[in-house]
Design brief:
alpha+beta; 4-stranded antiparallel beta sheet; 2 helices
């Protein structure tokens, strides 16, 4: 399920699933480089994504509940301020 919302010169995109959820201790470490739970993962996908999003003045968050799924939300500004606006 994908949802987007345009508000206050920001766009929010949320991606939700209905899977088994992520344990709280894994959510707290999800953005740590090299932290992974899959056997073949290297743990760089979320940290790199977070860095790119934050470099563009955005934010990424994860919410999850056991047996209720997970939601990843990205909030990004629509346009960066110009020199005249700063």
């Amino acid at each position: 399920d994908i949802e987007s919302l345009l508000k206050d010169a920001m766009i929010r995109v949320s991606i939700k699933d209905t899977g088994r959820g992520i344990p709280q201790e894994d959510i707290e470490r999800a953005f740590d480089p090299f932290y992974t739970t899959p056997e073949k993962g290297i743990g760089l996908g979320l940290p790199l994504s977070q860095k790119i999003i934050e470099d563009h003045k955005g934010k990424v968050t994860i919410e999850s509940a056991p047996n209720q799924g997970t939601s990843l939300t990205v909030l990004l500004p629509i346009a960066a301020p110009t020199q005249e606006e700063v």
